[in-house]
TrEMBL record:
InterPro entries tied to this protein: Cys/Met-Metab_PyrdxlP-dep_enz (IPR000277), Cys_met_metab_PP (IPR054542), PyrdxlP-dep_Trfase (IPR015424), PyrdxlP-dep_Trfase_major (IPR015421), PyrdxlP-dep_Trfase_small (IPR015422)
UniProt superkingdom: Bacteria
Modification sites for N6-(pyridoxal phosphate)lysine: K206
Protein name: homocysteine desulfhydrase
Amino acid sequence: MREKRFNTQAVHFQKKESAYHVSKAKPIYQTTAFTFSDLDDMESFYEGEKSYLYSRYSNPNTDDLGVGIALLEGAEDGVATSSGMSAILAGVLAVAKEGDHVLASEDLYGGTYQLFEQELPNMGIDVSFVSFGDLETVEKAITDRTVLIYTESITNPLLRVEDLEGVISLAKKHTIYSMIDNTFATPYLLQPAKIGADLIVHSATKYIGGHSDVNAGVLVGTAVLIQKAKSKIVTLGCNLTPFEAWLGCRGLKTLSLRMQRQCENAANLAKSFNKSAGVSKVYYPTDVSAKGNGAMVSIDLAEEVDVEEFFKNLSWVKIAPTLAGVETTVSYPLRTSHRTIPDELRSELGIGKQLVRISVGIEDETDIIEAFQHAIKQAQIKNL
Ligand SMILES: *Cc1c(COP(=O)(O)O)cnc(C)c1O
């Protein structure tokens, strides 16, 4: 063969792939598809001997993230998706179809509430929202069309800790699937698959990524259900990109270190709020797990604290409508995550105008405590 001409050379300059470059960090398979040496080789994908054909179907980086979380959760299999929202959608569609009914907790993450309240009914899937504080109420809401019970292990923003064993055993009693959003707890604190949850979902955008630089979701669960969810993800195009999966995997490696520090900082910040006159109520759970109680702290500022002034005086603490990064951030649920929840339900849930949600980071604990003490003090003074 003669040498390649210019335009051909411009795209075919790479050395042939060798299986022998064993790099220490996993390469990013930033590719839409995989190539084959001949037709028999390609046939081997369809026969299940080769794993990769087209990156929307599967990709080594996205597989790593799904399988990595499944291993930590003690679940049979897992799949990574483009966002927490698409992981939730894929999980629901793996078990529910037109005519079915889903029973969901009323204090869900705002985006999930919107998906369940607006989109699922358009697909012919009915959703009832009930208070999960009392499982008898939940049981009464089960109908003969109910296929799924859906809740969150730790709720947002009031940090109610779900009775997972109760919810899962109720589902089993009625032969209904259970699905748990484990984003706030992470597998570091809780592993709902180990106590029988069928599907567990994560917004990997939060603690799994951990650095506020990747939007991703992960769904784990029984092999049969994950297979069904994968087929929805492929068809709906909810796949995660290789680079974002790679970032998610990098984040996962430090999940336990970050969670350990963030949980400790959060527990101490909550303690400091208990002693503060500027705080009328502290929401911080005490019964999540032996390893810690999560890294989210919510507070009701006392009536005499001006919320606008509080947010203006946070010094290095940033206002951000997300959570779980290594930096401490604050959000205002009334105007962000819970904006779309009807007023009546919002006040029933206890999400008022003095409520502030704090995502505690890995900084020095004393600096975090001082930053909030300062903001509260400034907001009190200016109000007088
Ligand atoms: C952020 C979040 C989601 C949605 O995840 P995205 O990655 O933003 O799509 C779902 N559930 C909980 C509890 C969340 O915090």
